[in-house]
Each structure stands twice: as structure tokens, then as C-alpha cells.
Amino acid sequence: MADAPGIASRWARGRVGGILLTMGAGACLALPSAPAGAATAVLLVAGFGLAGAMSSVAVTTVMEMAPADRRGGTLGIMNAVVTTAGLLAPTLIGRLVDLHGASGYQYAVLITGGLLLLGGIAAVTLIDPDRDARLLSA
Fold first, then answer.
1. When comparing pLDDT for 106 and 52, which is higher?
2. Three-state DSSP class for 2?
3. Which residues contact 3 (CB under 8 A, 6 or more apart)?
């Protein structure tokens, strides 16, 4: 796929997505110590909303990297991984709440923030669609 003039795919995919994940991580990590009210709502929306934006970046990154004859399968695998995470998360959060009561939700948000931070760092440092497309087509 062609890049927009002057914007490298690595920046448009990895850095933008990674920065969004990192910002979402910061909001999630700040949420448990925020005062109740508007600040909590803003951090909750920012934490999970910014992280959700990575899904559109991920799809376009996979489309750019995968050879045309393997795009459908690659996107299917990505959706399977995302769906599996969506199945596991409620079970894990329920277990945290069972073990720790209401503070289990705070642990869940902190764990989410940590995972978003790791994902953001990985996205910024590892995503390079041009390099990966060359490797996959070889």
C-alpha cells in the first residue's frame, strides 16, 4: 500500500497506534487514584477509548503487511486472538472481584493499564509494515 506523502508507514501504524495505547495506559493507571466524579469518567473513557482506536490501526497494518493471497487468513487469526481475549477477560475480572471484593475492579484496571503500556511500547518499537511485508513476501 502506498503511504501518504511524507508519512512513513511505520510512523502511521506503529507510532500512532503505540502512542494511543500508551495514552490509554496512562489514563487506566491514573484511574484508581482519581477522585470520584468527572475526572473518573474522563479517565475511563480516555483509557478504554484510546486503546480501542488501535483496532482500526491493527487492521490496516495487517492488510499492508500480509500478501494479498494471505490477507483473509491473517485477519481471521487476528480476530480469533481478539475474540479469545474478549472471552477470557470477564472470567479473569470476575475472579479478581471474587478474591478481592470491589477492589478487584481496581486491580483489573491496573492490569489493563499495564498491558496497554506493554502493547504501546511494543507497537512503537516493533511495528514496521514495510520490513514485515518484505519478509512475508519472500
1. 106
2. coil
3. 9, 12
Please give the DSSP secondary-structure letter assigned to residue 37. Answer: T
Cell numbers that stand for 6 in this block: 511524507
Top-level class of domain 9-137: mainly alpha
- Distance of alpha carbon 39 from alpha carbon 42, whole angstroms: 5
For the chain, what are the domain ranges? 9-137
The alpha-helical segments, DSSP class H, found in the chain are 9, 16-30, 38-52, 54-65, 71-100, 103-126, 129-137
Grid cell 500500500 in the structure block, residue: 1
Dump pLDDT digits (tens) for 94-108.
Answer: 999 999 999 999 999
CA–CA dist 102, 99 (Å, integer):
9
pLDDT in tens, 111-128: 999 999 999 999 999 888
Q: At residue 137, does pLDDT exceed 80?
A: no
CA 26 to chain centre: 13
Residue with cell 511494543: 122
